[in-house]
């Protein structure tokens, strides 16, 4: 199941992950992480290192013979969350935590680089290992790497995400749309403030905002086909400063999640018409803004099948889970604008060790036993794709 190289490197793999877990950094601020990875990569012979952006690093490994060029991507940023675990290697940075497994992603890819660099004689072609910054914050680091030209000449791109939704030792696989397009809306309801004792002299933006929030909940139920996955969520409401003052305005902020391109295109207009109609009825004004985030990750059918075969050959058919689309977004989709790609979910849920808390949670714990599965998969994937004719 596991190669000797992976098993021998596992203790170091866990050390790397824990080192990064203790020093998490927010999106576009991953200076220490980049230096740490650059230093470790610099110890591996046969690599060419690139720093195409302020943070993040690219390691290029060329095989002994010519062939296709592929890219592997691991994200490295953390989240603005105060860690609340009792782990001895918990975050030492107040208010910042690796609560989404990116430290594990970087460690697995670093281990794969180290193993594959010693096997370059078996490889036909080139692999670019992207240690990507800023996955968590749109417009995202993937778009910056793409703009910097790191994908030039790349014909296939692969990504992986640790997931507490699936048991350790399994891989969530899906051909076609895997993740949703994630977008944001900001609504400012502009009324007329005044004394709470005289509401008739005011245009109450709180009541108007409440009607808008209720109206937005009808979009998925009544404006989108019942068989089509979509989400409209109001996540922030801000307004008012005192118990006896009707404020002059209220802001509403939320997100949409869609898979269908046409639905994503038309949804802003649907939302704004609801806002406009309610505000007009109330005598209020409004400002509506819709910001596009990440597009859907869409797995190429042929590459999905190739990845599935790699997993089955390594861990058996039971290790492959055919999964439904996932609502969280992923900026890996930006890299797929250049070439076909395959993105897989690596199970890291373990009931026995208490690794069950979902991502983006202050008590998130990763099952580190999952890391060696990821390294084995990455090494076998690269060898299979760069095996030559």
In short:
The protein has 389 residues and is an alpha/beta fold.
- How would you spell out the order of helices and strands? HHEEEHEHEEEEEHHEEEHEEHEHEH
Q: Between the first and last Cα atoms, what is the distance in angstroms?
A: 25 Å
CATH architecture label of the largest domain? 3-Layer(aba) Sandwich
Across the major sheet, the strand order is 1-2-4-3-5-16-6-15
Mean pLDDT: 97
Any idea of the CATH class of the largest domain? Answer: Alpha Beta
The rough form would be described as: elongated
Question: Describe it for me?
Answer:
It is a single chain. With 389 residues, the protein is α/β, with parallel strands linked by helices. It folds into 2 domains: 4-178 and 296-385, Aminopeptidase; 181-294, Alpha-Beta Plaits. 33% of the residues lie in helices and 27% in strands. The protein is built from 10 helices and 16 strands. The chain has helices spanning 4-22, 31-42, 102-117, 141-147, 205-216, 218-223, 261-282, 301-315, 332-335, 371-385; strands spanning 47-50, 57-62, 65-75, 124-132, 156-167, 171-173, 176-177, 181-190, 194-195, 230-238, 245-246, 249-258, 285-294, 298-299, 320-322, 341-349. The strands form 4 sheets. It has an 8-stranded mixed β-sheet with strand order 1-2-4-3-5-16-6-15, with helices on both faces. A 4-stranded antiparallel β-sheet has the order 10-12-8-13. The protein starts with a helix and ends with a helix. The model has no long low-confidence stretch (mean pLDDT 97).
């Amino acid at each position: 199941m596991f190669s000797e190289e992976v098993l021998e490197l596992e203790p170091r793999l866990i050390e790397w992950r824990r080192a990064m877990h203790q020093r998490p950094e927010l999106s576009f601020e991953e200076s220490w992480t980049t230096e740490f990875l650059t230093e470790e990569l610099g110890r591996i012979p046969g690599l060419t290192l690139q720093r195409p952006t302020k943070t993040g690093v690219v390691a290029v490994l060329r095989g002994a013979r010519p062939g296709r060029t592929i890219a592997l991507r691991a994200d490295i940023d953390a989240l603005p969350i105060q860690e609340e675990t009792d782990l001895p290697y918990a975050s030492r940075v107040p208010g910042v935590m690796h609560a989404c497994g990116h430290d594990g992603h970087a460690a697995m890819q670093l281990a794969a680089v180290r193993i594959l660099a010693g096997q370059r004689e078996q490889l036909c072609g080139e692999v670019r290992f992207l240690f990507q910054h800023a996955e968590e914050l749109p417009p995202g680091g993937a778009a910056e790497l793409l703009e910097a030209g790191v994908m030039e000449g790349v014909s296939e791109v692969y990504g992986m995400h640790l997931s507490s939704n699936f048991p350790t030792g399994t891989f969530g696989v899906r051909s076609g749309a895997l993740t949703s397009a994630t977008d944001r809306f900001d609504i400012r309801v502009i009324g007329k403030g005044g004394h709470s004792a005289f509401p008739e002299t005011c245009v109450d933006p709180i009541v108007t905002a409440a009607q808008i929030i209720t109206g937005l909940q009808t979009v998925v139920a009544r404006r989108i086909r019942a068989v089509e996955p979509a989400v409209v969520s109001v996540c922030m409401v801000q307004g008012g400063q005192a118990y006896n003052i009707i404020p002059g305005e209220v802001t509403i902020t939320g997100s949409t999640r869609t898979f269908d391109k046409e639905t994503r295109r038309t949804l802003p207009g649907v939302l704004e018409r609801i806002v406009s109609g309610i505000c007009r009825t109330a005598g209020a004004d409004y400002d509506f803004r819709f910001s596009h985030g990440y597009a859907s990750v869409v797995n190429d059918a042929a590459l999905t099948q190739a990845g599935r075969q790699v997993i089955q050959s390594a861990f058996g058919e039971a290790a492959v889970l055919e999964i439904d689309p996932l609502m969280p977004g992923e900026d890996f989709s930006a890299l797929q604008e250049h070439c076909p790609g395959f993105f897989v979910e690596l199970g890291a849920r373990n009931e026995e060790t208490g690794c069950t808390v979902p991502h983006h949670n202050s008590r998130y714990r990763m099952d580190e036993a999952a890391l060696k599965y990821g390294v084995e998969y990455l090494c076998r994937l690269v060898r299979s794709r760069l095996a030559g004719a």
